[in-house]
Specification:
This protein is α/β, with parallel strands linked by helices. It has six helices and seven strands.
Length: 214
């Protein structure tokens, strides 16, 4: 007798299990600390957008600590803007968001309006990699907190351009700034400019790299 794939009568099949982190990756990110804690960000589902996991973002800001207060956040490859808005929530005086996907840039504007921080948020649509050649006029009257968190594949497909962008921030950021590079755990930190000066913190499957600009 052929085997039936139906469950026995009166018993329902168990619900399908979502992959770990699936809900987090497919839902609107929330701000996890500061004055805007718990607020959700506008979210455009798109394979190009990879929100940083909450636990990694929380660890990142714990490591950054109070120097975020009064700084200018620069959220490269912004996506949902979770890093820049988190910095604003925790006391940054302003935030600049670079995002090449125009519908996602529109979502950043909606988030800034909904959160009541439009006066402190500057949205720059376009290719952030071009900032290596022409940096936007980010104010230099306060230290910068720079987040370089591109799609991880770019560390292979556009490695030279991403490192060029990091080098430009090292050269342009005012004293007291901090630069953060987030990559996957296959990334070789030796490829960073002035590699020995970086602090490396593994956060599997990510790695966080910190540089203090003197």
């Amino acid at each position: 007798m052929p085997r039936s794939d139906r469950p026995p009568r009166g018993r329902r099949p168990p619900p399908a299990q979502a992959a770990p982190g699936a809900d987090e990756a497919s839902s609107a990110p929330r701000i996890i600390g500061g004055t805007l804690r718990g607020r959700r960000l506008d979210f455009v589902p798109d394979p190009r957008t990879r929100p940083m996991k909450d636990r990694v973002r929380e660890a990142l800001f714990n490591l950054l600590g109070t120097p975020v207060v009064g700084s200018i956040a620069v959220d490269c490859f912004a996506g949902t803007g979770a890093l820049g808005f988190e910095a604003l929530s925790r006391g940054a005086k302003g935030a600049w968001f670079g995002e090449r996907h125009f519908p996602t840039a529109d979502a950043l504007r909606r988030s800034a309006t909904a959160l009541g921080v439009s006066d402190r948020a500057t949205i720059r649509p376009g290719d952030v990699l071009l900032w290596a050649r022409r940096m936007p006029e980010i104010p230099v009257d306060a230290p910068w907190t720079v987040f370089v968190s591109p799609p991880w594949s770019m560390f292979q497909s556009h490695a030279a351009e991403v490192m060029g962008l990091v080098s430009a921030f090292v050269a342009k950021a005012p004293p007291g700034s901090r630069i953060v590079v987030e990559a996957d755990d296959t990334f070789d930190p030796a490829t960073l400019p002035d590699a020995a000066a970086w602090e490396i913190r593994p956060m599997p499957p990510a790695v966080l790299c910190f540089l203090d600009v003197g």
